[in-house]
Amino acid sequence: MSLVSLDKDRIKILLLEGVHNSAIEVLKQHGYSNITALKTSLNEDELCEAVKDVHFIGIRSRTQLNARVFKAADKLAAVGCFCIGTNQVDLDAAREHGVVVFNAPFSNTRSVAELVLAEIIMLLRRIPQKNAAAHRGGWDKAAKGSFEARGKVLGIIGYGHIGSQLSILAEQLGMQVRYYDIETKLSLGNALQVRSLDELLAQSDVVTLHVPETPQTQWMIGAKQLAKMKPEAVLINASRGTVVAIDALAEALKSGQLSGAAIDVFPVEPKGNDDVFESPLRGIDNCILTPHIGGSTEEAQENIGIEVAGKLVRYSDNGSTLSAVNFPEVALPTHAGSRRLLHIHHNRPGMLTRINQILAEQNINVSGQYLQTDSQVGYVVIDIETPPKSTIADDLLIEMRAIDGTIKARVLY
Ligand SMILES: NC(=O)C1=CN([C@@H]2O[C@H](COP(=O)(O)OP(=O)(O)OC[C@H]3O[C@@H](n4cnc5c(N)ncnc54)[C@H](O)[C@@H]3O)[C@@H](O)[C@H]2O)C=CC1
Ligand SMILES: O=C(O)C(=O)COP(=O)(O)O
């Protein structure tokens, strides 16, 4: 049996959570037709079953790929996160199994910034509660507690791609922008970085969160932090559901300590559109609830589909790991007439020497070789000069797989 990579139509691709059609089009244009696309996410047991013979999987923010799933996925080469966040993937477990993870770091950022901008205006004008009252036959025509955004202080927590875009948009409305970030950042426009979260909370009329899910951001806004906000300020969270303690927020909204909130992300979210959404925030009129749609625009989803599918295709076609989030980045130009081998191994001294010894013993000429390592893993792409149909590459692969410390090795073409 040949050990050379499968024909493209035998490479199985599983796309979950309604990944945009643009991804399927890109994959098909490059010859990958064995694609299963589902609208929903899968739970852990379902995933362990579904990933068994899958080579590439595409997910969004809902699907949890943990160590057990990677263990079950013995053919998996790469994961495409068709979103920004990669907190739903156990990146270390993926790396341990030689699985490369890609994401789309920018494509939906404008969509989130626009939604938050709209929510700032809605919340400052108390539209959620006036809207809810009107639907029940109420008529709350009053200026009390309704404010213009102009001149108000917007406090941004996390001044990255989304936070900094929002900063520019909000200044165009006349807002004064302050931000808190653990890194020193380039302040755009007239924005000012403050030194502590508490300082930001105390100064802001609107607080909005744009941090990733990390151990440090988990529950970073709880009862104590909410109490430090200005009376009647508003809170927006379109980052991750684990960043805000939702029970404390519900209390602050019910008691009037906060005048409103807009929440797009939740500690537990439904698996798909047919599941019921449960939350202590349901039924609170001064809270805008959106079903994790910060990045869900036609433009963003189409671009993400093209971007991430393109990264999967490049890895599958030529071994490029450029922009991978958990893997050494390697891209080697193709050398005409060469065969290409990939070797993923634990980062131990002497691995490359062992690989090259095998090549030297077989008298194989290397036309290109590129190794990159991180603290855990080494990834080397090797182009060798062998005749197209020879079985030398297969023989080499058997020897390379036998090297102690090898995670994965294959002949790409
Ligand atoms: N609701 C939605 O549909 C979407 C949600 N997101 C979420 O938004 C997050 C942010 O996205 P980007 O701006 O593109 O990420 P980014 O990585 O460009 O920016 C994140 C910023 O947060 C800062 N940060 C990290 N830990 C911090 C901490 N403990 N305290 C203060 N600042 C901290 C970082 O230094 C960085 O500047 C994503 O990680 C994702 O979870 C992203 C897209 C869509
Ligand atoms: O890009 C992100 O991190 C998001 O949260 C968007 O997630 P989604 O693709 O809408 O499930």
UniProtKB/TrEMBL annotation:
Domain ACT: 340-413
UniProt-listed GO biological process terms: L-serine biosynthetic process
Enzyme Commission code: 1.1.1.399, 1.1.1.95
EC primary class: oxidoreductase
InterPro entries membership: ACT-like_dom_sf, ACT_dom, AHAS_small-like_ACT, D-iso_2-hydroxyacid_DH_PdxB, D-isomer_2_OHA_DH_cat_dom, D-isomer_DH_CS, D-isomer_DH_CS1, D-isomer_DH_NAD-bd
Molecular-function annotations in GO: (S)-2-hydroxyglutarate dehydrogenase activity; NAD binding; phosphoglycerate dehydrogenase activity
SUPFAM superfamilies (UniProt xref): ACT-like, Formate/glycerate dehydrogenase catalytic domain-like, NAD(P)-binding Rossmann-fold domains
Pathway: Amino-acid biosynthesis; L-serine biosynthesis; L-serine from 3-phospho-D-glycerate: step 1/3
Positions of transmembrane segments: none
Pfam families hit by this protein: 2-Hacid_dh, 2-Hacid_dh_C, ACT_AHAS_ss
Record field: catalytic activity: (R)-2-hydroxyglutarate + NAD(+) = 2-oxoglutarate + NADH + H(+); (2R)-3-phosphoglycerate + NAD(+) = 3-phosphooxypyruvate + NADH + H(+)
The keyword rRNA-binding belongs to this UniProt entry's keyword annotation: no
Keywords: NAD, Oxidoreductase
Similarity comment text for this entry: Belongs to the D-isomer specific 2-hydroxyacid dehydrogenase family.
Job of this protein: Catalyzes the reversible oxidation of 3-phospho-D-glycerate to 3-phosphonooxypyruvate, the first step of the phosphorylated L-serine biosynthesis pathway. Also catalyzes the reversible oxidation of 2-hydroxyglutarate to 2-oxoglutarate.
Full protein name: D-3-phosphoglycerate dehydrogenase
Source species of the chain: Pseudidiomarina aestuarii
